[in-house]
Design goal:
The chain is mostly helical and 251 residues long. 80% of the residues lie in helices and 0% in strands.
Length: 251
């Protein structure tokens, strides 16, 4: 049985059990609304374009923040890989920052930028930068010395050696870093939007929670999860697999 069929069958069973439990009143509709109620809330949100505007606003912040995070993370990763001093100092700080949840940075971001777009994007940037930098560092450091020595014997050195040999050899780590940066940035965005004042999935989630609209709360949670899964599996997993096969790393 194909994987897709298994997944569809699994989710169909979950929905049937969920709907049946709600209709049999095994739990309160206030605590866990039925799938029918959830999808009705989603339909209403899409019909009045509220959720459409939320998606556009969230993706705008995500693309800006993730793009900046990948650029900064790549630059820091290269610095850590090429400079032992930077690796022993800034690298240790980076590891400490990586263990700090992105939402923890939000109060600081609000103090610096105010409760606005800049604060949200700042949190998104931090969410993706650290993991990207660490993967770039690891990728460059793990380049086989044989590749480097072979290139050096052919006269390649300095920037030419880095562009032609070292960086291409670390591409699998670059792709993995981008995939992880997307996941961390997406989570950071949702956390930051919970305290934002403009449109966005996180803002709508908090708004629905404040007014006790659990159907919309669960609906937005489903949207967040579905988008995360689709982007990861249809884009980054395929990209990562393609790179691994091309570099001969696919087992």
């Amino acid at each position: 049985m194909k994987v897709m069929i298994k997944r569809l069958l699994f989710f169909a069973i979950v929905l049937v059990l969920w709907e049946s439990g709600s209709r049999l009143e095994l739990w309160s509709e206030v605590v866990l609304p039925s799938p029918t109620s959830v999808f009705q809330s989603l339909y209403t949100g899409i019909a009045d374009k509220t959720l459409i505007y939320d998606l556009i606003a969230s993706f705008k912040r995500l693309f800006i923040g993730l793009g900046i995070a990948i650029v900064i993370g790549t630059s820091i990763g290269v610095l850590l890989a090429k400079s032992k001093t930077a690796d022993e100092t800034l690298g240790s700080l980076l590891l400490a920052f990586q263990s700090v949840p992105s939402i923890v940075w939000l109060p600081l971001a609000i103090m610096w930028f105010g409760l606005n777009e800049k604060a949200v994007i700042f949190v998104v940037i931090l969410g993706g930068t650290f993991v990207m930098a660490l993967n770039i560092r690891m990728g460059i450091k793990n380049v086989s010395p044989l590749y480097i020595r072979a290139a050096q014997t052919m006269g390649s050195k300095g920037l030419d050696l880095f562009i032609r040999v070292i960086f291409p050899a670390s591409i699998p780590y670059v792709v993995t870093g981008a995939r992880l940066a997307w996941a961390f940035a997406w989570r950071a965005l949702m956390a930051a939007e919970l305290l934002s004042t403009g449109p966005g999935l996180g803002y709508t989630l908090r708004y629905a929670s404040d007014f006790g609209d659990m159907s919309l709360v669960i609906g937005v949670m489903i949207i967040i999860g579905v988008i995360g899964a689709i982007v990861d599996q249809l884009l980054f997993q395929r990209m990562e697999k393609s790179v691994m096969e091309r570099w001969g790393l696919d087992s």
